[in-house]
Design brief:
The protein has about 375 residues and is mainly beta. It is built from 6 helices and 21 strands. The strands form 7 sheets. Strands 5, 6, 7, 8, 9, 19, 20 and 21 form an 8-stranded mixed beta sheet that branches.
Length: about 375
C-alpha cells in the first residue's frame, strides 16, 4: 500500500508465540518527495545512490587550502566489483576502444577556461576475453630514475606507443632493462587506442600532480586536496621542485591525456559495506584492509580494488617512490613493475546513446 506524501504514524508491535504484546512503539514519520534524485552523465540520466552500489554524490565542503572554484559537487561510482556469481555490482561499464572500460565518475578538472567537469574513465583488467594491460615500472633505466610524472617512462609509454597503437620500448617487470611492448594488437598485450577512442579523449585537461609528504595518515578528502595542491617532490640533484601540473606546455610531445587514477579516485569508489561509506572516509586509506581489521569493509566494497598492486598518481614527496593501492594505499618504488590501468577524461561532446552500464550491456558512446 502506498501511503502517499505527508505525515504518517507507524506502529511496531512485539509479541510472543502466544500473541501476547510485550512492547509497542508508535512513531510519526514524514514522507516527502518519492522521486529519486538524478544527475546527467554524458547526456544520460543516472539515479543517485544512497546505499549499496551506484553513483554517489560527493560534496567537497572543507578544502581549506584550495580556492573556492574547487568546492563543487562531484559524482563517483562506488561499490563492489563485478563477480560472475553476484548480480549486485557497480553498473558503470563502458564500451570504449572496442573494450570494456568503466566510468569513475563526473569529476572536477582544470582546463584553460578554469574548473570544469569531465567524465573520467578507466580501463578494466581481469575480464574474461579481454587482455590484461600488464605490469610496468613507473620510471625505468639504469640510473636517474624519478617519480616526476612529466619525465617518467610510464607516462611516455601510455601517451606514446599505447596511445598510437604501436610497438616500442617499455620497462616491464622491473625498471632496469628495457624491453619491447607491442600495442599494435598482434601480440599478447591489448591493442592501443584506435582513432575513434583518441578523438573522444580530452587532451586539454590539466592533470594535477600535487604530492603528499605522508601516506599512512591521509584520508580520502585529504588526498583529494593535496592532489590539487602545489607541494611536490624535489629533484635530488638539481634541488628543483617537480611540476605540480601536467600540461601540453610542460610536456608538448607526450601530453595526450592518458594517466592513472589518483588515491582519491580509489577512496571515493567504496560504498563502505557494513561499516558505511562515511566511516571509511574518516579513516586513513592506509588502514583500509590492513592486518585484517574492520576497515577491510572499505577495500572489499571498492570496485577499484584490483587483484594486483596498482600504481597511482601523483607522486609522494620521496623522489623514488609513488603511491600504490591493493586493499590499502601505500608506497612502492618507481623501478618495480606494478599494475597499470590507463585513465582518461572524455570530451564534453561525447555522450552515452545506449546501454545500462551492466557488464553484458555496457554504456555505448557517440560524439
Amino acid at each position: 500500500i502506498d501511503p502517499g506524501l505527508g505525515s504518517h504514524q507507524v506502529s511496531v508491535r512485539v509479541t510472543d508465540n502466544q500473541n501476547s504484546v510485550s512492547k509497542e512503539v508508535t512513531k510519526e514519520i514524514e514522507i516527502t518527495n518519492s522521486e529519486p534524485e538524478m544527475v546527467e552523465i554524458a547526456g544520460k540520466q543516472i539515479q543517485i545512490a544512497t546505499c549499496k552500489n551506484g553513483l554517489y554524490k560527493v560534496e567537497h565542503n572543507d578544502l581549506s587550502e584550495l580556492d573556492s572554484s574547487w568546492n563543487k559537487t562531484e559524482y563517483r561510482y562506488a561499490g563492489v566489483n563485478y563477480k560472475d556469481e553476484n548480480s549486485s555490482y557497480v553498473h558503470n561499464y563502458l564500451e570504449f576502444n572496442n573494450e570494456k572500460w568503466r566510468i569513475i565518475g563526473l569529476v572536477n578538472v582544470k582546463t584553460e577556461s578554469g574548473v570544469e567537469q569531465r567524465v573520467k574513465i578507466i580501463r578494466s583488467d581481469g575480464i574474461e576475453g579481454q587482455k590484461d594491460f600488464g605490469e610496468y615500472a613507473w620510471d625505468g633505466g639504469i640510473s636517474n630514475t624519478t617519480n616526476n610524472w612529466t619525465e617518467s617512462t610510464l607516462k611516455d609509454m601510455l601517451n606514446g606507443i599505447y596511445y598510437n597503437s604501436e610497438s616500442g620500448r617499455c620497462y616491464s617487470d622491473n625498471g632496469i632493462l628495457s624491453s619491447t611492448c607491442d600495442f599494435s594488437g598482434n601480440g599478447s598485450l591489448p591493442k592501443g587506442l584506435d582513432d575513434t577512442a583518441r578523438k573522444m579523449i580530452d587532451s586539454e585537461v590539466i592533470w594535477n600532480l600535487g604530492g603528499s609528504s605522508s601516506y599512512d595518515d591521509v584520508t580520502v578528502e585529504m588526498f583529494y586536496e593535496r592532489e590539487r595542491g602545489t607541494i611536490t617532490a624535489q629533484d635530488e640533484k638539481t634541488m628543483e621542485y617537480f611540476p605540480n601540473i601536467w600540461t601540453k606546455e610542460n610536456d608538448e610531445t607526450y601530453h595526450k591525456g592518458i594517466g592513472l587514477m589518483y588515491p582519491s579516485d580509489y577512496g571515493y569508489a567504496t560504498n563502505g559495506g557494513g561499516i558505511g561509506r562515511e566511516s571509511c572516509f574518516k579513516h586513513e586509506l592506509y588502514d583500509w584492509g590492513l592486518f585484517g581489521n574492520q576497515m577491510e569493509e572499505c577495500s572489499n566494497n571498492d570496485w577499484l580494488n584490483q587483484k594486483s598492486l596498482q600504481f597511482l598518481m601523483p607522486y609522494s614527496l620521496d623522489s623514488l617512490t609513488v603511491f600504490s593501492a591493493l586493499g590499502n594505499v601505500g608506497q612502492t618504488s618507481v623501478t618495480l613493475g606494478d599494475g597499470v590501468l590507463p585513465v582518461g577524461y572524455l570530451l564534453p561532446s561525447v555522450t552515452i546513446y545506449d546501454g545500462d552500464g551492466t557488464f553484458d550491456n555496457p554504456f555505448r558512446l557517440q560524439s
